[in-house]
Amino acid sequence: MRSYDQYCSVAKALDVVGDRWTLLIVRELLLQGGSRYADLVRGLPGISTNLLAERLKTLEAQGLVARYDAPPPIGTTLYELTDAGRDLEPVIRSLVRFGARYMAAPTSTETFRSHWLAFPISELLDDADPTAPPVVVEARVAEAPAFIEIADGEIRTTLVRPSTPPSLTIEGNAQLALGLLTRQVDVELARQLGLGLTGDLTVLQRLRFNGPHVVDDPADLASER
Questions:
Q1: Predicted model pTM
Q2: pLDDT digits (tens, 9 = 90+) for 31-42
Q3: Quick one: three-class SS letters along 15-78?
């Protein structure tokens, strides 16, 4: 990457992570932890394998990513963030909040992966009743189910089925599901627009929204369908 040649910390940071795809690679490693090359390819639809290899090589050279050979039964090379790489998590989380306002107008060509729910769910939602028993919401909005665990004042998203069975299952369009979870789309409209809802709808009351809207006007969703 060419340098901005500016003695400025912002410019210095962009010299390291300002290339296209670089911060999305960091996003994937934050969400997935130690990742195989194939995992990163699946989590970065649209990137060429040559470009991914080049970006990983640059991140390694900058001390942000390390790779190691995992022992059996994995038995393959894994990539993970170093301590310096993990220092970028607040940057990614700030981008989550900043970028959420632009999620209100997705294009027809945009892809979505289940684990991408993790950052907007944890960053834009709070547990409205931390003293209540743990609950799980299953979201079937992409290639694999995601599980939103609400417990002890924290909200986390995982692709691993938890021991607690889901109290509510949501199935359908990702933006519509996010609109429902953030209470910007009500249950009746969500169902009218084709979102499948099975289980205890009162679970939605545990979620308190604290960010920019991912749905500008619910009526727009209705007009698009």
A1: 0.90
A2: 999 999 999 999
A3: HHHCCCCHHHHHHHHHHHCCEEHHHHHHHCCCCCHHHHHHHHHHHHHCCCEEEEECCCCCCCEE
Q: Degrees (nearest 5) of the Cα angle 213, 85, 110?
A: 40
| E strand or H helix that includes residue 139 | strand 135-140
Distances (CA, A) of 191 to 53, 180, 198: 43, 10, 11
Domain parsing of the chain, residue ranges: 9-87, 100-224
Q: Give me the architecture of the 9-87 domain, per CATH.
A: Orthogonal Bundle (1.10)
pLDDT digits (tens, 9 = 90+) for 201-221: 999 999 999 888 777 666 666
Helix (H) or strand (E) holding 120: helix 118-124
* Superfamily in which the 100-224 domain is placed by CATH: SCP2 sterol-binding domain (3.30.1050.10)
Report yes or no: 139 and 128 within 8 Å, Cβ to Cβ: no
- Cβ-contact 97, 211 below 8 angstroms: yes
